[in-house]
Design goal:
By secondary structure, the chain is of the alpha+beta class. The chain contains 16 helices and 71 strands. Strand 49 and strand 50 form a beta hairpin. The two termini are 27 Å apart.
Length: 1001
């Protein structure tokens, strides 16, 4: 069975492949009373019934609750830290469930009277338990055998028997009444049954366009399941639809004769024949109503902390690195600027003889390799290519360079030719060479299964003589810290490899091919990033903005530099004459005014008077827009200096990143604040704090409170504006992060986040360790529980409306706009345009129906008094244009233009704690000047002709100029036949952009 990435992500909850029309949600507001917030509906809840028929168990807000079978007030059996879901009644009052308490999914049992017992342990996940009819066994699925297979646990002995395995990706097993067979879903596209002796049969194959969830045995042993496609989710019995026009949640139904118990539309439902009744329930959950105060501030200057990708010269006397938008060379405490900083120059590496530096620069339009002669200062292009060339490393003999392209492929080039070394990899790390030049190694993710995308960041070594690709964990069940500059890095003599695991440096002795020859030894005990060898007996690294050196026996010193930065002097005072303006609050435009700027702020707004410095009398001034969810350096090296320009060209004057490679982020933040890089204000965090498994290359696998303290120390000393906790971080560590953090926090979870003190949730549904969301269903609907928790807690919601691309079916103007064509890298422009052209066709990737459900969800939160802020997840969606597509989508499905603009001005400014998002005296002069009236037609918000950031005014032609009239490389180096290792033999080898899916991160 071969799955596409879309199928993989759909399974894990990333892509809601189904859609619906208007949500039936009716509850707008809820207040947190003395007993908490009352919840009477549940989004994506499951239900189980006791054997005597007296009790129901449900999972709501990641806890197990019980209530009488006739309905009523539910009683909570598990606490917040248990993170419990998917109850299954067994004998008597026993209830099995899955819990993420210790950072992996394991099986537990509780009872109506309390008391909890853990049944499974270890580093693999054990999910979706189902008691056998006689209560002696529990069926479940686990990735303990290399993919998700069906297993059976003997309750008394604890023995586990595997029934299915590789290459299965099984889900949600349920028993037959006689306890001899188990039915389960396979890959969301089939229903199988297996006997206890391993005999297997396929019962159902999904029709084209459908997915299958929640299998069970129905009357006459017919398979019963949810069959789902866009706009439709039916409970099936055999080939007959039992329900219609319901949002069936896709969990196993419970049949008793012709009566069936299931969950749909936010409710528990009991259907007999054609008659359906709702079983009411009510719970109260506590929430915190006071959110953390922002600590965001405008940096004014100081010592440079944004030092990225340092490398040491062979003689140990010099260090090269990126800072303040340029490549620098540090020697004897003095840093010398080597490149002019007009474009994006990054990732230097010394030649083996120390006379040259190779680095990447987008001065010719896209990132390409350049070699600097350190004696003469002459730069020459090295093996030009039609793709991006990033993260280069010289070979040991100095004749070749290994590098990454924009698709995650590794190439090896000499001066005349280039040759592909690996297939496409998902966000790999920087290459490193063995001493003999016969092996290249780098960090690459290896998932545990197809069903869930997370895995560990391992060392991938490529033997250049045999073509073998080999994955190896740096330590058992551990990840290299980030797949950027945290290793592996080979020592110059080829005898050791260094890497970072759990925030500190380790070194292991290896043979010529990189095979470990013993256990790794810990070198540092402080926050460690961006390793480089200093000779064969010491490491240079970054520690919270400092360059440090440690010998292998742990003697640490600081390598000082003289680099500082400061915010430039405010632009000269000027008067801008506008035909109209919106102040960020009013319901109508105000007309014919002069906006007086002084010291980067708005001094006065007055009627036309005298002569203006800038005539924008045919334009409307609106507050500069704020995109509150993007990741500048997810593709930062590929986008280069274009990215800041495209944000400004579309009137976005502030961006917030909830996750970026930390030193790339700090470097860019300092470069923008100091004025050496043109772009919006940039507020950000470093890598998201994740759990034991990771996916993206900028996640921090965090396994303990001690390591969490190191992560928070990095955040504090590098001045993070927020912290994001990610998908696999257990509730206990998420709670500890809240208690110990000094800045606001956000995540992909609504509850218990709303009670432990988190400040926001990203995306409408978001990647979720469950594989589905408790805030949005596969049909794009949210119910009373979700809206009540948002509106009562004050947590922010950042929708990131990926499905807004569906609006390209009627209007492709943003995809074809000159600003998009010039300022997007060529491959990004072509992909974006092709996707836009596909909308409204069978090849389209987005759904208007799903989009409508998402927006109606956000609208109920917004009008219920909740806190909605605009964000896009760019570049997973398209930088800048996606901001406007999100605004257009909000208006298309219910927001007024004013309400939509508030989500991109006043609201995110409030989240950041900054006086942005308004045009009034004393506010920063961040203004977009557009043609038209955005309060009447939201599309005109994209018609930007001028933009000001801190009083610095830019016109669109000037923003386009660096990439519109740039020098081009005359020829590219010859592409030779790929190495045998470039053949793709693993399903997870794919480019990061392979699918546009909801809520990726």
């Amino acid at each position: 069975m071969d799955l596409s990435r879309r199928e993989l992500l759909t399974r894990t909850g990333q892509a809601a492949a189904v859609a619906t029309a208007a949500s039936t949600l009716t509850i707008g507001t809820a207040q947190a009373g003395a007993d908490g917030v009352k919840l009477t509906q549940g989004t994506n809840i499951s239900v189980s019934r006791s054997k005597d028929g007296k009790w129901l168990a449900i999972d709501l807000v990641t806890a197990i609750w019980v209530l009488p079978a006739t309905g009523g007030r539910a009683r909570k059996l598990t606490d917040e830290l248990q993170d419990a879901t998917l109850p299954s009644f067994g004998p008597g009052d026993q209830i099995a469930f899955q819990s993420y308490r210790d950072g992996n999914y394991h099986l537990y049992v509780t009872s109506l009277n309390g008391g909890i017992k853990q049944l499974t342990q270890g580093r693999y996940d054990h999910r979706e338990p189902a008691f056998s009819p006689d209560g002696t066994k529990i069926a479940f699925v686990s990735d303990r055998a290399g993919s998700y297979g069906v297993h059976v646990l003997d309750v008394k002995s604890g023995a586990i028997t595997q029934l299915t395995g590789v290459p299965d990706e099984a889900a949600a097993p349920q028993w037959s009444k006689d306890g001899k067979r188990i039915i389960f879903a396979v890959g969301n596209n089939a229903i199988d049954v297996v006997t206890l002796d391993g005999k297997r049969e396929r019962l159902v194959t999904a029709p084209a366009g459908f997915q299958l969830f929640g299998a069970a045995f129905g009357p006459g042993d017919q398979p019963s399941y949810t069959r789902s496609r866009p706009g439709q989710a039916d409970l099936m019995l055999g080939t007959t639809a039992v329900t219609s026009n319901e949002d069936v949640f896709g969990f196993a139904p419970i049949w008793d004769g012709d009566s069936v118990l299931y969950t749909a539309d936010g409710k528990i439902k009991l259907r007999t024949g054609t008659s359906t009744k709702d079983i009411p329930f009510e719970v109260a959950v506590p929430v915190r109503t006071k959110r953390r105060q922002p600590r965001t501030r405008n940096l004014t200057g100081g010592p440079v902390k944004g030092i990225a990708s340092p490398v040491v010269s062979p003689d140990g006397t010099k260090i090269a690195f990126r800072a303040l938008n340029a490549v620098y060379l540090l020697s004897n405490g003095k840093a010398t600027k080597l490149t002019d900083g007009k474009y994006f120059d990054s990732d230097p590496d010394f030649s083996p003889d120390g006379t040259r530096l190779v680095y990447a620069s987008d001065r010719s339009g896209v990132a390409q390799l350049w070699v600097r002669d350190l004696k003469t200062g002459e730069d020459k292009a090295f093996a030009p290519a039609p793709h991006a060339q990033t993260a280069p490393r010289f070979s040991p003999d100095g004749t070749k360079v290994a590098y990454l392209d924009h698709d995650g492929q590794v190439w090896i080039a000499d001066q005349q030719s280039r040759r592909q070394l690996t297939p496409t990899l998902f966000q790999p790390g920087r290459p490193t060479w063995s001493k003999d030049g016969n092996t290249v190694a780098l960090a690459a993710v290896k998932p545990f299964s197809r069903r869930f995308r997370e895995g560990t960041s391992q060392i991938l070594s490529i033997d250049l003589t045999t073509g073998e690709l080999k994955y190896a964990e740096p330590m058992p069940f551990r990840s290299i810290a980030t797949r950027g500059d945290d290793g592996p890095v080979w020592s110059p003599d080829g005898k050791h490899i260094a890497f970072v695991v759990e925030s500190v440096a380790w070194v292991v002795r290896v043979d010529a091919k990189g095979t470990p020859q013993g256990e790794p030894g810990q070198v540092t005990r402080e926050v460690t990033d961006s390793l480089a060898w200093h000779g064969n007996d010491a490491l240079v690294y970054l520690n919270n903005g400092r360059i440090r050196k440690s010998t292998l026996d742990g003697k640490v010193t600081t390598i000082r530099h003289d680099l500082t930065w400061r915010r430039p002097k405010a632009p000269a005072s000027k008067v801008i004459r506008v035909g109209a303006y919106w102040d960020g609050e009013a319901h109508e435009l105000k007309h014919n005014v002069d906006i007086v700027l002084e010291n980067g702020k708005i001094k006065e707004i007055r009627p036309h008077k005298g002569k203006a410095d800038v005539d924008a009398s045919k334009l409307t001034a609106i507050p500069g827009l704020i995109d509150a969810h993007n990741h500048w350096h997810l593709r930062g090296r590929q986008w280069g200096a274009r990215q800041g320009l495209v944000w400004l060209a579309y009137g976005i004057t502030t961006v917030r990143s909830p996750g970026d490679p930390v030193y790339q982020m700090v470097e860019t933040r300092e470069a923008l604040a100091s004025g050496v890089l043109t772009g919006p204000r940039f507020y950000a965090t470093g890598e998201a704090v994740d759990g034991s498994r990771v996916y993206y290359n900028f996640m921090r696998p965090t396994l303990s409170k001690a390591q969490l303290d190191l992560e928070l120390r990095r955040a504090n000393e590098l001045g993070y504006d927020m912290i994001k906790t990610y998908v696999r971080l257990p509730v206990e560590l998420q709670k500890a992060a809240v208690q110990r953090s000094k800045v606001p926090l956000s995540s992909h979870y609504l509850y218990p986040a709303a009670n432990i003190g988190m400040d926001g949730m990203e995306h409408v549904g978001a990647t979720n360790r469950l594989g589905y969301s408790h805030t949005i269903t596969r049909q794009g609907r949210a119910y009373q529980d979700v809206v009540a928790l948002f509106t009562s807690s004050g947590m922010s919601m950042t929708p990131t409306l990926f499905q807004s691309r569906a609006l390209y079916d009627k209007d492709k103007s943003l995809a074809t706009d000159e600003r998009t064509r010039v300022l997007y890298p060529p491959w990004e422009y072509e992909r974006n345009l092709a996707d836009a052209n596909n909308q409204g066709t069978p090849a389209g990737t987005s759904s208007r129906a799903l989009l409508q459900g998402w927006v109606e969800f956000a609208l109920k939160v917004h009008r219920g008094g909740g806190f909605v802020i605009c964000g896009t997840d760019a570049p997973l969606d398209s930088p800048a244009t996606a901001t406007h597509m999100n605004l257009r989508a909000l208006v298309e499905y219910g927001f007024t233009p004013r309400e939509a603009l508030i989500t991109a001005t006043r609201n995110p400014a409030k989240w950041l704690g900054l006086p942005l998002g308004t045009i009034k005296p004393g506010a920063p002069a961040d203004i977009a000047f557009v043609e038209g009236n955005p309060l009447a037609d939201i599309k005109t918000a994209a018609n930007v002709k001028l933009v000001a950031v801190g009083g610095q005014v830019h016109n669109i032609p000037d923003l386009l100029a660096p990439y519109q009239n740039q020098p081009q490389l005359l020829a590219t180096a010859a592409a030779l036949e790929p190495f045998p290792s470039a053949e793709n033999k693993h399903w997870w080898h794919e480019p990061e952009w392979a699918e546009r899916v909801c809520c990726d991160h």
